[in-house]
Write a structure and sequence with these properties.
The protein folds into 3 domains: 93 residues, Pseudouridine synthase (2-Layer Sandwich); 132 residues, Pseudouridine synthase; 68 residues, Archaeosine Trna-guanine Transglycosylase, Chain: A, domain 4. Helices cover 26% and strands 35% of the residues. The strands form 4 sheets. Strands 1, 2, 3, 4, 7, 10, 11, 12, 13 and 14 form a 10-stranded mixed β-sheet that branches. Strands 15-17-18-19-16 form a 5-stranded mixed β-sheet. It has a two-stranded antiparallel sheet with strand order 5-6. The chain is globular, with a radius of gyration of 23 Å. About 2% of the residues have low confidence.
Length: 313
């Protein structure tokens, strides 16, 4: 353990919250995460959906107990703004790769709009070799670095919205709302191939995840220029991650039983499904309702600890 790591561990603190972060260019998602974590001196942190170093934009950072509820954003739809360089194919499908083919570009707005409509709805994508999808326990990008290619299965994704923002010369900019698992780099290649000229992605910016928008995010430069109180004011409570779920208020006795792993019998008037749970207005976790019975799905550690202490006294 380095002296710097030891010093960070000494000053780190428990923190349960969410930060909407605007990831800058050329930083990996993990590097960006660690920079933010150090700014907040947080013991534990995680992010919700990787962005490549050449991509920028919304990267929600979850601290402490909030990391238990990241699945809500990992499964959520994403919004992106992307720019294609038409007429040039590359080895990676983006600006990091070497140009492998050059073709003339002769497309107009009407052609682009017609092609974009063919990609909306359910579509199939072949994951790129330069991706983190694992094959035999290793990410695909490790194989391609060794010059190896492996068989990949087509994946079904949903393109909910696809809009042309700009067409100037050999650059095409579009906005997309898509389901989880969508590779915008692959979408850009497929669009440019259907236009007959080929192309590659030169810019990508994530502008939304679920209910969260880039408009409410903070940059690294902004955070570094703030004092501790100002940075704290940028944080969102943990339950913002599950605002899409209906809420359910429990009394202290019910919350205690749930924290001990017991199922609660509730009125059959409650429809089945997941619920965000509260007691005395305080968020305690997520439960699953089925047939009038409530089962704990994910509860805050503090709730379970408090229940264990009450049981031992």
């Amino acid at each position: 353990m380095t002296k710097k790591t030891e010093q960070f561990r000494r000053v780190s603190r428990p923190l349960d919250a969410v930060l909407l972060f605007d990831k800058p260019l050329e930083l990996s998602s993990n590097t960006a995460l660690q920079k933010v974590r150090r700014l907040y001196s947080a013991e534990k942190a995680g992010h919700t959906g990787t962005l490549d170093p050449l991509a920028t934009g919304l990267l929600p950072v979850c601290f402490g107990e909030a990391t238990k509820f990241t699945i809500a954003l990992l499964d959520a739809d994403k919004r992106y703004r992307a720019t294609i360089r038409l007429g040039q194919r590359t080895t990676t499908g983006d600006a990091e790769g070497e140009v492998t083919e050059t073709r003339p570009v002769a497309v107009d707005e009407a052609q682009v709009l017609a092609v974009l409509t063919t990609f909306t709805g359910e579509t199939r994508q072949l994951p790129p070799m330069h991706s983190a999808i694992k094959y035999l326990g290793k990410p695909l990008y490790e194989y391609i670095r060794k010059g190896e290619t492996v068989e990949r299965e087509l994946r079904t994704v949903i393109i909910r919205e696809l809009k042309l923002d700009r067409l100037e010369g050999n650059e095409l900019e579009f906005s997309v709302l898509c389901s989880k698992g969508t590779y915008v780099r692959t979408l850009a290649e497929d669009i440019s191939e259907k236009l007959g000229c080929g192309g590659h992605l030169i810019a990508l910016r994530r502008t939304g995840i679920g209910e969260f928008s880039l408009d409410d995010a903070h940059t690294l430069t902004q955070l570094e220029g703030m004092d501790e109180a100002q940075r704290a004011a940028c944080l969102l409570p943990t339950d913002r991650l599950v605002q899409n779920l209906p809420s359910l208020e429990l009394d202290e006795v019910q919350a205690n039983r749930l924290a001990q792993g017991q199922r609660l019998g509730l009125s059959d008037s409650h429809p089945d499904g997941k619920r965000r749970l509260y007691t005395s207005g305080r968020f305690i976790g997520v439960g699953e309702l089925e047939g009038g019975r409530l089962t704990p799905s994910r509860l805050l550690s503090s709730v379970a600890k408090a229940a264990a202490q009450r049981e031992s006294t």
